Amino acid sequence: MTTRRALVVRGGWDGHVPVEATELFIPFLKENGYDVTTSESTESYLELDGVDLVLQCVSMGETKPEHIKSLADAIRGGTGFAGWHGGIVDSFRDNTDYSFITGGQFIAHPHNFTDYRVEVVAEHPIVEGITHFDVHTEQYYLHVDPTNNVLATTTLASHPDFPWIEGAVMPAVWTRTWGEGRVFVCTVGHKLDDFDVPEVRTIIERGLLWASK
């Protein structure tokens, strides 16, 4: 088996437990033939030659324009890019070029922690055999790219401060391409026990493999 290379970049806001969360998936990557390197800095985006997959968990955080340009160039060339929750769609808020890559930007979680259902809405290997699942965690309201390939959605209930969100259907899992590269996003994953939900764990694991093929 040819060994593939995965770079795990983690940091930013500690509330999303970037180290602990990514450590849950590193053994899975190794079991599937990846040589895994970890980094706590986007400086590593300047050296992506030969990297098959970038798993990013950097909520908010800071970076430099040249780091994002190098990441974008690598993805265009075929490097996969994947992540969950704020670690991928609430990163580097001041860099709009980055949002073009991910296809979405976190705006709010109006209900904070709440019970909600995620409905699968497409046929795709990442969600094969899954119809829906229920979670108790943050439900993201996002601004999203209409060209995303949406695999699963969630519907928001009304909120007294934001009545216009009632019935809004938000993507919860999607894929997209960026040049030759594949991008995978799952918006569930605020806390560690979110990954104890079997469907969440399965979708993310499949998404990581899909992104780097």
Which range best describes the helical content: under 10%, 10-25%, 25-40%, 40-55%, 55-70% or over 70%? Answer: 10-25%
C-alpha geometry? globular
Number of helical elements: 6
Largest sheet: 9 strands, mixed
The SSE order reads: EHHEEHEHHEEEEEEEH
Give the N-terminus to C-terminus distance in angstroms.
14 Å
What proportion strand? 25-35%
Strand order of the largest sheet: 2-1-3-4-11-10-9-6-7
In terms of structural class, how would the helical and strand content be classed?
A: alpha/beta
Mean pLDDT: 96
Q: Radius of gyration, Cα only, in angstroms?
A: 16 Å
Oligomer: single chain
Summarize the structure in words:
The protein is α/β, with parallel strands linked by helices and 213 residues long. The protein has six helices and eleven strands. It has helices spanning 18-23, 26-31, 65-76, 86-89, 96-102, 198-211, and strands spanning 4-12, 34-39, 53-59, 80-84, 104-108, 113-120, 132-138, 141-144, 149-155, 169-178, 181-186. The strands form two sheets. It has a nine-stranded mixed beta sheet, with helices on both faces. It is globular.
